[in-house]
# Entry
Amino acid sequence: MFTLLKGLKIIDLTTVVLGPYATQMLADLGAEVVKVEAKEGDVFRAVRPGRRDDLGVAYMNFNRNKRSVAIDLKQSRGQEVLHRMVKDADVLVHNMRSRSAAQLGASFETLHAINPGLVYCYSPGFSELGPDRDAPAYDDVIQSRSGLAALNADASGAPKFVRTIACDKVVGLHLALAIASGIIQKQRTGEGTCIEAPMLESMVSFLMSEHLAGHSLIPEEGELGYDRMMTPNRKPYQTKDGYLTILPYSTRHWTRFFKVCGEKDWVTANKVIDPVLRSEHIDELYGKIAELAIDKTTDEWLAVLGEQDIPCARVNSLADLMTDEQLTASQMFTETTDDRLGQLREIRSPFQVDGKLSTNNTVAPGLGEHTSEVLLELGYSESDVAALKEDGVVITGIQ
# Structure
């Protein structure tokens, strides 16, 4: 954990991946993040494997450095607890539909009246401006709706999901940026704000930045889709013993590549040295790489291309990442021990601050692990907390 955001208080009502990914990054940077969960907990807690029912490893990898409070926000007394938390908070963030947030006493209007300086950020599936504002959405839904599944189609043209929670994490980055921007405005003006970062619109902005292509012009000049991304010969190339990504990009890269391959005619060809013509012939050029790649082993290519400073990479499996020399040297995977869970492996924050890596991270909390602690900080007495627990408004201290 770094200290860049030390003193920043974030109330986190998010669930699953999108919101927790955003708030974990902020927690890694030093923000105090209090995760407010329903009494049954974030549904992602149950994703296996895991050594405790309420602490699956998937949940753990998106919720470190946070505290957990479990409250029934469907009850008015639960909403009263949330409202007291909001009074001195800097940020409240959720990834619910607006109507759901309102039912839980967490609408912008309600919370702004309590704390006019509150930065309120939320990430629904669809923008409030459209007819689908109240429709449910998860990653797979947005992969389909945004065009990502179609872009990832197989050889037969059938759409396929990307094998990562791509939309949740991309939109999570948008949400983290929105929160940071709201904080800066508050520091400059003293005023709170409400920022929407909807999933579909964020993903379409992300994908269409290059794929709007010729439709950026009116009337259109060319088709939708960035040609270099769409060409069939853009792929990892088969070598004598595996696969390798070879990516000459600049004119210098291309001419160096064909020189080391002994392709003199290609070194001076206009379609190689002229960037505009090269763009128009990119599939042909990639096809030529495919013809040449089979002549050497992966290691031979890495040595040759490395000497010429031509971008390239072996194709790693997930297992390969665990022993990748760069990742090992940068300490991307670290080990720790937790009293509840035993020995663990963590993915560190990718940032360095002043040349230092993050330290003193805390493992994701158990459900309601900090309820009593947080409520006492808010001014509730121990008897108040006991009464709230007895009446089913909160749950506390599950270890």
Summary: The longest strand covers residues 32-37. The chain is about 40% helix and 15% strand.
